[in-house]
Amino acid sequence: MDNKNDGKKQGGKMKFNILWMYFFIFAVLASIFVATDTPLNGSFKREVSYTEFQSYVNARGVKSMVVIDKTEVQAELGDSLAKKLYPEYEPNKSKKAYVIANIPSADRFANEVDAWNASGVFKGDVKYENGNSNWGHLFWSYGPLVLLIVFWIWMMRRMSSGGSGGSGGIFNVGKSKAKLFDKENSPGVTFKDVAGLAEAKTEVAEIVDFLKNPQTYTNLGGKIPKGALLVGPPGTGKTLLAKAVAGEANVPFFSLSGSDFVEMFVGVGASRVRDLFRQAKEKSPCIVFIDEIDAVGRARGRNASMNSNDERENTLNQLLTEMDGFGTNSGVIILAATNRADILDKALLRAGRFDRQIYVELPDLNDRKEVFQVHLRNVKIDESVDVDLLARQTPGFSGADIANVCNEAALIAARHKKSVVQRQDFMDAVDRIIGGLEKRSKITTAEERRSIAVHEAGHATISWHLQYANPLIKVTIVPRGKALGAAWYLPEERQITPTQALLDEMCSTLGGRAAEELFLGRISTGAANDLERVTKQAYAMVTYFGMSDRLPNISYYDSTGQNYGFTKPFSESRAQIIDEEVSRIIAEQYERAKQILKDKAAGHAELTDVLLSREVIFTEDVERIFGKRPWTSRTEEILGDSDSADNNADGADAKEDAAEANSPKVVPPPFPPSAK
Hints:
Radius of gyration: 43 Å
Number of strands: 17
Largest sheet: 6 strands, mixed
Mean pLDDT: 77
């Protein structure tokens, strides 16, 4: 009881509420209205019949009349009649005496007034008015003021609660926007919903276990990690892993984005950081998750505006201070996620702030199986769907890509009015995601179709006869997306790539252009995308990987992301050597591609005819023409002897040829492999 009373009072006095002032103002206005609303207020008045009213007029006892709304008459009485009707009436005082009567009609009453004037019984004034009720008079007199007060109250509350319904109004602009999850409002995601990522889940689960059972670690002298940074490509499940932590932990979990600290007002970001850690300390032990921390954690000194008072840097400085400054943050663990760890400030990544960097990589074969099983829980499938086959045919797919495949397959099945999702629907979904939507309605001439067939057959022929080239899955000349033709290959999942593998891939990529020159006697813009990829790959070999004869063991790749500022890390003469080496590598592989095509001209011609007649070829078609490949990759060993139906819709790594030279498909530049 005492605690409740203390919550209502402070120092024995009730808290002041501004609504009391509004109530006082309204009461004053109402009292003024009641006191001064109509002339009859404070006077003697009585309602009488119309016959009595006529008798009062004939007795010369009425001084003046006021007709209201042509239905009612208010008559002021003379002193003698007033004294007779109201004994307490005193002449020459402020109070007056009235009688009120309903008139039968306005016309009849006007005639009677004329008769009274003619006979001399009434010589006073007669006024006609439109009557207003008390509430109408109150509204027109004080309504605008009341509406202004109500509007002001509404604006004050809206600003204090946030203009868009959030907690960041003009008075709370410096407050944190973090969402709090606890036992009552857990996101409902657990580690069971996160497929794969075994190592990442182990490290994150250890943090959760530390918060649940700290004695297990502190008894041995261990200290809780202050922060863990989740790093990995987009779509690999970093945010999903954080949601699982929120679902598993029995401690408060604050979630927000790095952009939530950014605001147009100066000092707001730092204020929100302080408020976030203040709330976290009050709820400790707890976990704070900052998604896309690169929005606020970018390395200092790289702002292009060169502003001396950079708001983002001030926010970062406050974040660094709160994470490991002079004050203590015992029991508060920071989780953050980013796919751009190379641009983060070094002070943010040091031990004591983010003690652990957890790498969330693209899923491998076994992980992809688990991811498919998770996303297929709510999809109606039949026995034809082979999860192992789907996992093998989606190398390089992230968890988000696999979720998209499952959803797209369900949409395709629904579009065809099926009751379940079948294997062919998944194959079509993979083709749709990799190559784009088929455009059979696109008009192509016979000459264009033959050029496309020759081009794609050139890719297929060379890739079949190179050791490190990716195994062919399917080639089609049906337009997809922006491409007039597409080829699907099954790339080997390597950790490191030898020089010969890069050269074989370049040779295979140049096979389309080489086939056009050899068998058509001309070249076209269809190889624009191939040339772009080959050029970027050749520059990467020379400047990143040190795979050049004239420039061996030299790399100009900057893993810190600074990109050397406004200067190049090499001289003009070295730049000329780089250009010469790139041109040499591309020229050598182009001549190599032409030589292979010359040796296999008959098989290439047969392959071209099959493409023109069927518009699509598969692995068994190439194997029938050229025989089995002399090299078997690890991926092919896993696939084994798949039947033609399996290959019918395999979609692994699509290579698309741009239809026009001025709109090639953008391919990101290659980077050094992560393995050392």
